[in-house]
Give the backbone structure.
Amino acid sequence: MSFGYRVLGFGSGAGGPAGYKVQYLVVAGGGGGGGANMGGAAGGAGGYRTVASKTFLVEPDTEYPITVGGGGAKGPVARPYGDKGAPGSDSVFSTITSAGGGYGAGGYQQPGTDGGAGGSGGGGGYDSNGDGGAGNTPPVSPPQGNNGGDASSSAGAGGGGAAQAGTSTTSPAPNNANGGPGGDGSPSTISASDVTYAGGGGGAGYGGGANPITRAQGGSGGGGQGAITNEGPHAGQKIAATAGQTNTGGGGGGGNIFGDNNGTDADSGVGGSGIVIIRRLTASSSSSSGTTSTSGADTIHQFTADGTFTA
């Protein structure tokens, strides 16, 4: 009697074809901006996770579900106080999960309301002690995002971005304050173009004094702009926030109730949806999953909605 044995290929199961390695970018949905009587805060950017070269192993003929996170809903700018936004949703590729961005704080309370935690944190809201939400939640290495800014004035703080924390707000005149700009996102060339993703939203500014309000900008990478309202000498200043940009994971801008109760309020902004991109050597597979393009020796698979990547 003889005894045989089987030699297994490394990373390939029972002698099947060997796996190959890919590069990925996984960006989650951005958080929605908060609505408030004063100081609606911005949403944080969706989590940003990537590898700069082809190091992630996939197995041929294996299906990998793709989830593309949606942006968080905007917080209602409704009397008497308004409310916080909603967090963004996670994006997933295989074992890689990017967390949705934290919501922007809203309301009209003392102490101020706190932003939500997430891939990047949402900004804190009116008045003192409105803390920004924690970024990189849950924690991964390298970090997937940054904290939202803190509020210590009648303006909302900025949401965190992939590369930078949101800006905190301070003002010597409590009733005349600019919102905090959003934190910048991070660039990627995985799509064969240089694109920046995951910028935090800008917080809402509120004015009742002699000076005009400067609108808070969203961070580079799709962050929405903050609203401004002014009921003083510059009462004509009333502009709604903008949404985070679609398929960038940008946070939505913060909104405000118009202080003198006349006219339309300055609405908050929804978060931007996320994106998943996978890049491989063309010679590694014949997969046509997602929206495909080529760059040199590589094929690029882009997902702007849920789908499946077949290795």
Summary: Confidence is low (pLDDT under 50) at residues 1-16. The chain is about 0% helix and 25% strand. Residues 118 and 137 are 5 Å apart (CA to CA).
